[in-house]
Amino acid sequence: MTNHLIIGQYVPGHSVIHRLDPRAKLLIVFAYVLIVFLANNAVTYALLSLFAFAFAALSRISFSFIARGLKPILWVVLFTLLLHLFMTKEGDVICQIGPLSVYEGGIKQGAFISLRFLLLVWMTTMLTLTTTPIEVTDGVESLLGPLKKMRVPVHELALMMAISLRFIPTLMEETEKIMKAQAARGVDFSGGRFSERMKAIVSLLVPLFISSFKRADELATAMEARGYRGGEGRTKFRQLAWKPVDTVFLAAVALLFALLCLLRS
Amino acid sequence: MDIVFEKVEHVYNARSPLARRALYDVNVAIRSGAYVAVVGHTGSGKSTLLQHLNGLLQPTSGAVKIGEETITSHKRPNQLKPLRKKVGVVFQFPEHQLFEETVEKDICFGPLNFGVPEDEAKRKARELIKLVGLSEDVLVRSPFDLSGGQMRRVAIAGVLALEPEVLVLDEPTAGLDPRGRKEMMEMFYRLHREKQLTTVLVTHSMEDAARYADEIIVMHEGTVWGHGTPEEIFRDADKLTAIGLSVPETVKLKQQLEKRFGVVIPSPCLTLEQTAEAIEQLFVKGERP
């Protein structure tokens, strides 16, 4: 499963996209996700696609690799496309298959919505492919900084995010180990009656929860032992530095926004 | 049940950029009724080797013959369950696999999975809890109320309850105190003899390997580096040191004595008892005119 899903995977590199400030990348992707919805004709969609492709090209991650990552969502895209093909009744009838008729508007709508979907996943994938989870967390914490005044526990939330990300591989490893141990005691995880399956899952989840709680407890003790007291007055090992290039990229997104507003019909 | 490895290779994540070869060209035979220790550096392929013994992993090339069954890359028995019942595996830190409300239920879990009737399984649980050195009133308690060492004993009882013909132990004494260590190793040795088990012990302790094993398999960088009796394996200490392993303390003592006094000690000195005897022999010789 993990072999196919590349969303959330980081690909090390030194491209200009990799080196962008994580805050800039978060803002770019967030803004992009919003302005995607402005597009409503061929020109605007072409513009958006061009931006996404340029972004990927600058990251120097091969297109085939990114395309492979889009495969799992292909079914969803196809489903959307078909739904629009047969459900939208606008414009001229293009062809008739039995009781179903395909309208011109349906083709257009279907293609646009599918493209929109692909672009959304494409850009968010680009974010995680070029940014380490730690950078993302630091970026989120910094961007949400102003909310601290409203007593939102930003630092704590960022820490929770960092810890969860850190422990995903550990948890996967643990799951595999326990599955093997239970399989050795005759548990069949792949088949069997419903009641047997439930029992199999319980034999996996209980040890998993117990070791997770234990680990959480140990982690808390270890953090306290090293004098951790929360975000107050805490400095960072990795300092985020806003560079001119970050401003340039944000300006590019602003330009894209302006063009979309002008060219949309 | 004889276990034969023929040109076994195992590659993790085969056919992907993350491919990693953990085992290659492994040719080894474990005969029925033998006590075999597998030693090797961390990452030498011991754990991967061990998981081939009950079909948890399939070789990516070559064949593993376990009794009547043969497992190759493209063929595995339709039913792995009978194999899993014959080969019991005690994983590292087996206490992590406990999950039932009571100790008794957890010990019965394995046998019930293999279709043993409930009263039979319960009878077995009562027998085994004593065998692993705990008292019968532990049976009604929650496994999570027990100490770490007790939990491990319960988990081991859960594997023994399958009544396997082959018992595979992956560092069963890791994290135990010296006394618990000794008790547990003695218990496995007793079981090995009483039930005529075939025992495969993965260990870092050269002392345990020397004391209990009939044969030692030395793994190094994914393949079998050496296979022989403890006497053969520990004869050449320098070669073992070169691959990051050592010889038992008693063998080191023997070498020191030989160097210091310029004598040859014929005994292999694998255990404390043997060593004491060998030293006694030296004294007796020394008294002669």
From TrEMBL, chain A:
Transmembrane stretches, by residue range?
29-58, 70-87, 107-129, 247-263
- Chief localisation class: membrane
Keywords in UniProt for this one? Cell membrane, Membrane, Transmembrane, Transmembrane helix, Transport
GO molecular function per UniProt: transmembrane transporter activity
Q: Which residues form a coiled coil?
A: none
User: What is the top-level taxon of the source organism?
Assistant: Bacteria
Membrane topology according to the record? Multi-pass membrane protein
A GO-annotated cellular component:
plasma membrane
Which Pfam families does its entry note?
Answer: CbiQ (PF02361)
Q: Where in the cell is it found?
A: Cell membrane
Write out the similarity annotation.
Belongs to the energy-coupling factor EcfT family.
State the oligomer form and interacting partners.
Forms a stable energy-coupling factor (ECF) transporter complex composed of 2 membrane-embedded substrate-binding proteins (S component), 2 ATP-binding proteins (A component) and 2 transmembrane proteins (T component).
Give the PANTHER family listed for this entry.
PROTEIN ABCI12, CHLOROPLASTIC
What this protein is reported to do is described as: Transmembrane (T) component of an energy-coupling factor (ECF) ABC-transporter complex. Unlike classic ABC transporters this ECF transporter provides the energy necessary to transport a number of different substrates.
Name of the featured protein: Energy-coupling factor transporter transmembrane protein EcfT
Tell me what gene encodes this: ecfT
TrEMBL record, chain B:
- Matching SMART domains: AAA
Q: What class of enzyme is it?
A: translocase
List the GO cellular component terms. Answer: ATP-binding cassette (ABC) transporter complex
- Which domain of life, per UniProt? Bacteria
One of the record's GO molecular function terms: ATP hydrolysis activity
Location in the cell: Cell membrane
InterPro entries attached here?
Answer: AAA+_ATPase (IPR003593), ABC_transporter-like_ATP-bd (IPR003439), ABC_transporter-like_CS (IPR017871), ABC_transpr_CbiO/EcfA_su (IPR015856), ECF_ABC_transporter_ATP-bd (IPR050095), EcfA2 (IPR030946), P-loop_NTPase (IPR027417)
User: Would the keyword Translocase turn up in this protein's UniProt record?
Assistant: yes
Keywords of this protein's UniProt record, alphabetized? ATP-binding, Cell membrane, Membrane, Nucleotide-binding, Translocase, Transport
Membrane topology field:
Peripheral membrane protein
Q: Recorded E.C. number(s)?
A: 7.-.-.-
Complex formation: Forms a stable energy-coupling factor (ECF) transporter complex composed of 2 membrane-embedded substrate-binding proteins (S component), 2 ATP-binding proteins (A component) and 2 transmembrane proteins (T component).
* Family to which this protein belongs: Belongs to the ABC transporter superfamily. Energy-coupling factor EcfA family.
Query: What does this protein do, in the record's words?
Result: ATP-binding (A) component of a common energy-coupling factor (ECF) ABC-transporter complex.
Protein name (Swiss-Prot/TrEMBL): Energy-coupling factor transporter ATP-binding protein EcfA2
Supply the source organism for this entry. Answer: Geobacillus thermocatenulatus
